[in-house]
Amino acid sequence: MSQDKKRDAIIEAALKRFAHFGVAKTTMTEIGNDLALSKASLYYYFPDKLSLYAAVLKSITEAHREKDDAVIGSKEDPLDAMNTYLEIRTDFIIKYHNILEYLKTYTPATMPPELEAVFSNIGSRELSRIKSIFEKGRQKGMLHIDDAQKTAELFQEFLEGFRYKTLARSGNFFPDKKQFLSILKKEKEFTGIFFRGLSFNS
User: Please, are residues 156 and 149 in contact by the beta-carbon 8 Å criterion?
Assistant: First the structure.
């Protein structure tokens, strides 16, 4: 087995363990045993559980990237496209909740560099998706927008601010599934108001 395939196999084994038992209750030894790998071999690829966790996060966020982009891009109405983006994001969080809830171990101030790098990449990708929706709406003559990049940045900042306030109220950096569905509902309400303000039909 090549090094790349062995690394991928470790990530896949960790993903299964994390999803079923949770990250905190999974040990590196258990992951190694699932693959009949020695500790030395496992730590050769990932020096600790945090680095492996970061690799799993990167893997699951990239797994459906092209498919999700295609689904969002197929929507002709920009409001429909944005709501679809928000739904896909929430569905992802709920699907991988057992893995993602480990993030409640941290706060924004204590987030390790390994995870910061992953979330920086996710943030950039989300901004790109949001920008493409606004740009498509502008090109179709459906939205009043001078600069799709600045509008996307503003929209993303409002969403992040709302999520941060919700998380701060809950006392957790990562809420439960019901809270995420509640967040989605409010995100859609805000999105409707935001888009009506940009619409030629308003």
Answer: no
